[in-house]
Write a structure and sequence with these properties.
Layout (H helix, E strand, L loop, with lengths): L3 H14 L4 E5 L7 E2 L3 E2 L9 E2 L3 E4 L5 E3 L18 E5 L11 E4 L3 E3 L5 E4 L9 E2 L10 E3 L7 H9 L4 E5 L3 E7 L3 E2 L14 E2 L6 H8 L2 E8 L3 H10 L4 E5 L10 H7 L3 E5 L3 E2 L5 E4 L5 E5 L3 H19 L7 E3 L17 E9 L2 E4 L9 H5 L2 E6 L2 E6 L5
Parallel strand pairs: 6-7, 14-17, 14-18, 15-16, 18-22, 20-24
Antiparallel strand pairs: 1-13, 2-13, 3-12, 4-11, 5-7, 5-8, 6-10, 9-10, 19-21, 21-22, 23-27, 24-25, 24-26, 26-27
Helix pairs in contact: 1-6, 4-5
Bound molecules: ligand LQZAQKY5 and molybdate ion (MOO).
Ligand LQZAQKY5 binds next to helix 6.
Amino acid sequence: MTTWSDARELAHELGRSASTRVMTVPTGRAAGLVLASDARCAHPLPRFDNSAMDGWAVAGDGPWRAGEPVLAGNPPPAAPLAPGEARPVATGAPVPPCTLGIVRSEQAIPSAADGLIDVLEPPLPGVDIRREGEEAVPGEVLLAAGVVLSPPALGLLAAAGVGQVDVSAPPLVAFVAIGDELTAPDAGTGPRPAPGAVPDSLTPMMPSLLTAFGARCATTRRASDRPDDVAAAIRHTRAETIITSGGTAHGPADPLREALRRLEARILIDGVALRPGGSVLLALLPDGRHLLGLPGNPLAAVVALAVLGWPLIQGRLGRALPALEPVGPGAAGCAGEGGHGSRDRAVACTLVDGVPVPVRYQRSGMLRGVAAATHLVLTRGDSAQLLRLPWAG
Ligand SMILES: Nc1nc2c(c(=O)[nH]1)N[C@H]1C(S)=C(S)[C@@H](COP(=O)(O)OP(=O)(O)OC[C@H]3O[C@@H](n4cnc5c(N)ncnc54)[C@H](O)[C@@H]3O)O[C@H]1N2
Ligand code: MOO
């Protein structure tokens, strides 16, 4: 059976093999999106020499006589500052050519009588002047392709005159929850669910969970346990990636394999040596779309999403595999009942003083534990690695 680390890489490779859709968007609308090409500085940053302080721009040695003020927003003065001249400047105002430095407003007292300013401390050359291009020059790469655009990154691009950016369009995902027993998740507000019915707890988490991966949930629907119903639900969606849940086991009522056979899908991964989350399928449809079949047990589904779904989406976005961190010896409790020779485990944890501590309530069918968790510890034989859950902040 495929190991979780091989499965992770295979899912990532599959995502990478698909072409990325690139779209151009206004910089202010690009937060959280992945840059598709390097973003280069369009204008010098700053655009012109300007004052970092309120005060006087001075030239030569004192005494200095106060001249016309320069305010932020004024065009850069063309005339050089003459020795002995002191022009009042506001923070951000362009400084005239030949400015020696800035005398801060608290370092001098203007004299109304003779127009001179009484400087307590003369400036050092260049002090408090923000030089044109000192942060970046035109053409310089400010952000490399593949980065996720953070709020400060949007501000940086705006400052550098980059009004629009090329980003990878978030991959569209259609979700199909399979199971005769499932009822709408909001059934609690409607008629009483039939005895034996199970609220569909995966559909409500899917849009925000996929957003945390960098994808977008295009549609959600439920399908019965009939293979033709499952095949029709898969066939009818237009999304480039399809995620299903349930029906992955080899039981008599488990329809996913039969549906995939009817769709002539190629199964690339059929089960992963991991518990929970191992009852998972990764398949390629004849039209090139990808299908990830999650186990029905909700914790198992979340684990399979973190271990395979996230890399699949990251690959599609041209991004690296989600990082794994080594786990120190303090995480011994996460080895679970695994032990040598048995299946590797995924353990939902929180970090206490940097050490992963397993949460309670993490049987395969439960969500209570993972709802409070921030990380998964993934064991491989006697070693373990830490995966941060992307929605956990
Ligand atoms: N004889 C064996 N039985 C099972 C094995 C096994 O090895 N031998 N493995 C178990 C494990 S582990 C898992 S995981 C599941 C995987 O089975 P399926 O993917 O076919 O899942 P279902 O049978 O459809 O459902 C399992 C469980 O999850 C509930 N479920 C399903 N979908 C949802 C949903 N959207 N929201 C909430 N709950 C859901 C479903 O009602 C079942 O209770 O197989 C085990 N069995
Ligand atoms: O193998 Mo199931 O996918 O734990 O929990």
